[in-house]
Amino acid sequence: METYEKVERSLIKKYRKPIWNRLIGGIKDYELIQPGDKIAVCISGGKDSTLLACCMQHLHKYTEVPFSLEFLAMDPGYRPENRALLLSNCTLLHIPVHIFDTDIFNFVAQKKKSPCYLCARMRRGYLYRHAQELGCNKIALGHHFNDVIETILMSMLYGAEMRTMMPKLHSKNFPGMELIRPLYLVHERDILAWKHYNGLEFLQCACRFTEKGTYDTPNAGKRAKVKALIASLCAENPQVDQNIFRSAQNVNLETLISWRCQKERHNFLENYDK
Q1: For all residues of the chain together, what is the average pLDDT?
Q2: Which of 89-98, 170-179, 210-219 shows the lowest mean pLDDT across its residues?
Q3: Labelling 192: which of 47, 89, 99, 200 has CA 20 to 30 A away?
Q4: 170 - beta bridge partners?
């Protein structure tokens, strides 16, 4: 059995419950795929996006919902060895990837304010544009359950607001395009287990600036602290991560001081005496 066959088999055998069933559950719960969709699965070279590519490729083979796939990778200025690892993994796993080059790393290197935020925004824009050129109406990203709950806490602790990472979004700058996150319910620990079980190696942080230690990445540091905080709380109560996730689906507006929807702001005093 070839490596790609072993990897694909592991998704529906050993990791059926923690990965495959959760993937299918998220797609159904959040209506991420509709008949006729053409989805660009975006591959960064890391474990999450590569797992997503494997899952989507397997789903496409057996689903009753007619949709098509493209596999898209962007080189923002990777070191040659990082680009080579991305491509070799795609070859190993029989993923027919389209790769294109940008100069994002060199551009953001000149920016002192929020370079990581700028890099992420630019990456997303390039991915949307190239996905459209391939005839796609959606891009799929590899964010998972832990990314979601970390984002919830980060927004509260550092952003002074309650918000989360949504399972799907309409693009504001590319009409007709949509972003979906099929791994929304999949836990990172299970992705790591799948990676180790199959003996796979992926890119970690491929940003050459952080590799050199010449870039200050406060958002990365904040996320690491929040990840550690959640881990410490889960050590005492294993339900903490699920409770954080469910809190974003169980918001009691009657107990909120104020909230906003788009540009409209509301306050509890509006209905206090009614």
Answers
A1: 91
A2: 210-219
A3: 99
A4: 178
CB 73 within 8 A of CB 43: yes
Identify the pLDDT of residue 213.
45
Identify whether the C-beta of residue 140 lies closer than 8 Å to the C-beta of residue 42: yes
pLDDT band at 176, cuts 50/70/90?
very high
Domain count, the chain: 1
Strand partners, 260: 265
Supply the CATH number for residue 234's domain. Answer: 3.40.50.620
> What's the mean pLDDT in 205-221?
55
Condensed to tens digits (0 to 9), the pLDDT of residues 21-71 reads 999 999 999 999 999 999 999 999 999 999 999 999 999 999 989 999 999
Domain that holds residue 132: 3-270
Secondary structure, 3-state, the chain? CCHHHHHHHHHHCCCHHHHHHHHHHHHHHCCCCCCCCEEEEECCCCHHHHHHHHHHHHHHHHCCCCCEEEEEEEECCCCHHHHHHHHHHHHHCCCCEEEEECCHHHHHCCCCCCHHHHHHHHHHHHHHHHHHHCCCCEEECCCCHHHHHHHHHHHHHHHCCCCCCCCEEECCCCCCCEEECCCCCCCHHHHHHHHHHCCCCCCCCCCHHHHHCCCCCHHHHHHHHHHHHHHHHHHHCCCHHHHHHHHCCCCCHHHCCEEEECCEEEEHHHCCCC
